[in-house]
Amino acid sequence: MKYTFLDLVKKIDVVPYYYNPKEHKSFRDSVYTFVSHDGSFRLGYMLPMVAEEFKKHSDVVKVDDKTREVCIKPSLNTLSARNQAFNKIARIWREKCAFDHLKGWRDELYTIYDPDKKPYMRLERAFCPLLGVVMYGCHINGYVIVPGTGELKLWVPRRSATKPTYPGMLDNTVAGGMGYPHGCLETVVKECYEEAGLKAGYVTDHVTSVGVISYFYQYSKGEYASEKGFVQPEIEYIYDLKMDPDTIPHPVDHEAQDFTLMSVDEVVERLKNGEFKHNCAGVIIDFFMRHGLITPEDEPDYVEIQNRLHRKLPFPTR
Amino acid sequence: MKYTFLDLVKKIDVVPYYYNPKEHKSFRDSVYTFVSHDGSFRLGYMLPMVAEEFKKHSDVVKVDDKTREVCIKPSLNTLSARNQAFNKIARIWREKCAFDHLKGWRDELYTIYDPDKKPYMRLERAFCPLLGVVMYGCHINGYVIVPGTGELKLWVPRRSATKPTYPGMLDNTVAGGMGYPHGCLETVVKECYEEAGLKAGYVTDHVTSVGVISYFYQYSKGEYASEKGFVQPEIEYIYDLKMDPDTIPHPVDHEAQDFTLMSVDEVVERLKNGEFKHNCAGVIIDFFMRHGLITPEDEPDYVEIQNRLHRKLPFPTR
Hints:
Two copies of one chain form a homodimer. The first copy, chain A, has ten helices and twelve strands.
């Protein structure tokens, strides 16, 4: 099967929109809402099996099966109290192997925000999809304009065959999660070195911040087959890195097995074959749209793709 | 007062999101929903005074004050039947001066789409805001990279003092509505000549399609003071036009009174002063974000701005 660009976007923007009341309701009926300590805002959506497990921690949350809410206790009214309480639960669940997903434990904290865009909680990265809270990353499009012809080509790595997630699939030039306390540009510089051997000075000289993509992902199949349905609202900060033809990225931490400089036609073909990791396909479609390589003249789903790659999530964000 | 970039975005993305149930409900209670002939989808939101006027056309629509819906009659089951019926009403209302807004009559048809992205209806442009249907335009950012310094500057026109709408305000280099039967690039080429004297060959050689912005506008004050509250969901196709320093745009149709090549700092200052037409401010903010001139490091509302400038509208679109 050949995917359309919209098919690829639908693989990451999965949760139904409220405009489709039937599908939206059926989704909402399948999850519990994770609610702030003062009841004033929602933090995420979680599966009933996670809510069930939370019932054993009535000092931290109140689980209401009628309203289908998991509410943080009012007494947890500071950032540090919440950090302590929830990361303790994460460690307990990890130790007792409550969820396979926690096998991906990273020792990396992700920040969750309140409606004023202030840090509300910091949680172990592998714990976040269990709670369905918003996660953040940075993705970098490394590209070259071929001298003479002016042709645009993209540096495309293949993920290592031994990576636990999406082994062997094609990826963005560089990409990484935004762990605390790193900012966007800082994460970009760090990951460009770790994943592609690019020096900090080179990256800051050549990189441009160009926007975000955001979407509402739901695991169709767990990264661990036993667990599907975790919800992952996601925001990826996007950067373009215009590289000169003489700079060749090379794997340092071996998350990538190799890099190939691909023509746009080759990238399009591999996208349509489904060879790219899902969210990386979204990043490249956004890149192609910003660079006039996908246009309203030739793409019938142009507006829908643009909108769904910039979805406003129903939770507070950075 | 100095506006933030988010303040400027909020001036065009006005209608409350469903995530704010109270504001959203109060908005929904203030409008009637315009519904397709088969009841399967919504076309727009209209004010009660428009729904009231529609009651005199029971051969074309059924107005239900209980459900607050204006439903197209099932018999109007073809594109041409709907075109005929609604444009007849538009002409009648114009003749009897039912709404001041129709004084802006353009003799220009806008296409309304169904959920399959097929044309559903074509309506006089000035009639569209009365029905609250989605409208389309093209906006072009003409910019210059100054040789030597590499500084980016923008070509900014001032709207003619005699224009009926937003007289004397600053604007995008070129912008125009997408009237039937013109496509996006065709509209760009046409408007670039009419508004800025740029030849077709020059435009097609230098222009790049870079995305859309979309937002849910509501008139806070009518363009005609007696009528406020019309709803205008809008999609603008965005193009960047990289111009060489020797090409100087000049008004042809005199919609603009003059063009100034402005530094980024000057544009930012004038944006923050509120000197730009509202939706043109949104276009420039999007431009600045794509060009790394507004970054996540220095803009606290970065994600919210990106999302609100790409709002998925609750109606079918192209």
